[in-house]
């Protein structure tokens, strides 16, 4: 038996139960992974609350790192004893042990530990596809990145700096603003004391930014559009404040023929080649020190309810991991 988190209904942190589960032998195309660390991400909250539906009862968690204990028929790219990590569906990472589709696993370089891997795979590969594929940015560009002191945001600040991109970040306190600046943001705005749209216009001399990366959703969506220069790109990749509703496409035309995309990591890592390329790009910037992964919170798996409460209350910064 192994310990895992299961939920039979949606709702608050209390719906997550710490239970014993039976983990059988891996099926064809699967590998059994014993987790050494598990990542905590805001998408987990979306599934827990039901914003993102899934059949119940169900597990939670889309990111983990550990060691392969067994492989099923047809699996050849990982072997027993390999150190591996993953990010993405299916849910179920909140567990000591699980069977995974082996096609989602990538081998870890010796220089990257399991704690670091679990803290960076989902967030780091998200930054990789955002900056390099969903809306490719280049040296000299000026972009706006919301939630710049969160796990995704701090990685984005560092990666943008390494690329020569001017990143304007937003955060909810002076302390978080300072954290974003420390990690490479060119400018940072406290959205609780400043109007971020006005400040972006001031910083850019009225021109606006080329791209906005927005994981907040309804609270920042229209303001984000107003930060863009004509023919700029709006990348909406999350709903931390709730989903965007009642949006008219005319809003894009009236602001200068803007572009809008709503990407998801799974579409950018759908093939084995794309997954390995995305992961390797992340490993490279971490190994050469251009991006440092800050694990600022650690919780035991049994205390996942507190972890979710802290995440939703914006009491966390950087990355958070669960220890099985």
UniProtKB/TrEMBL annotation:
SUPFAM superfamilies: GroES-like, NAD(P)-binding Rossmann-fold domains. One of its GO terms (cellular component) is cytosol. InterPro entries: ADH-like_C, ADH-like_N, ER, GroES-like_sf, NAD(P)-bd_dom_sf, QOR-like, Quin_OxRdtase/zeta-crystal_CS. This is NADPH:quinone reductase. Its EC number is 1.6.5.5. It comes from the Bacteria. GO terms for molecular function: mRNA 3'-UTR AU-rich region binding; NADPH binding; quinone reductase (NADPH) activity; zinc ion binding. Residues 11-322 form the Enoyl reductase (ER) domain. It is an enzyme of class 1 (oxidoreductase). Keywords: NADP, Oxidoreductase. The lineage of its organism: Bacteria, Pseudomonadati, Pseudomonadota, Betaproteobacteria, Burkholderiales.
């Amino acid at each position: 038996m192994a310990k895992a988190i299961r939920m039979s209904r949606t709702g608050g942190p209390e719906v997550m139960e710490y239970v014993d589960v039976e983990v059988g032998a891996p099926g064809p195309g699967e590998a059994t992974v014993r987790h050494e660390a598990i990542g905590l991400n805001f998408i987990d909250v979306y599934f827990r609350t039901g914003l993102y539906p899934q059949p119940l009862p169900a597990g939670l968690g889309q990111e983990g790192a550990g060691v392969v204990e067994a492989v099923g028929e047809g699996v050849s790219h990982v072997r027993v004893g390999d150190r591996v990590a993953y990010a993405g569906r299916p849910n179920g990472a909140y567990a000591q042990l699980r069977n995974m589709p082996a096609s989602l696993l990538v081998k870890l370089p010796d220089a990257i530990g399991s704690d670091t891997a679990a803290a960076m795979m989902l967030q780091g590969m998200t930054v990789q596809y955002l900056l390099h594929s969903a809306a490719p940015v280049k040296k000299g560009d000026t972009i706006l990145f919301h939630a710049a002191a969160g796990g995704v945001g701090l990685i984005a600040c560092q990666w943008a700096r390494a690329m020569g991109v001017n990143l304007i970040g937003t955060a909810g306190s002076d302390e978080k603003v300072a954290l974003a600046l420390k990690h490479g943001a060119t400018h940072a705005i406290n959205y609780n004391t400043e109007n971020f749209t006005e400040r972006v216009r001031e910083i850019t001399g009225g021109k606006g930014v080329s791209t906005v990366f927005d994981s907040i959703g309804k609270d920042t969506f229209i303001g984000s559009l107003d930060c863009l220069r004509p023919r700029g790109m709006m990348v909406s990749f999350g709903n931390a404040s709730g989903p965007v509703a009642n949006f008219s496409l005319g809003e894009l035309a009236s602001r200068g023929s803007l572009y809008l995309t709503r990407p998801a990591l799974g579409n950018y890592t759908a093939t084995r080649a794309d997954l390995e390329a995305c992961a390797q790009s992340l490993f490279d910037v971490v190994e050469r020190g251009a991006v440092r992964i800050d694990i600022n919170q650690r919780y035991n798996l049994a205390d996942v309810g507190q972890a979710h409460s802290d995440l939703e209350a914006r009491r966390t910064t950087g990355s958070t991991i669960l220890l099985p």
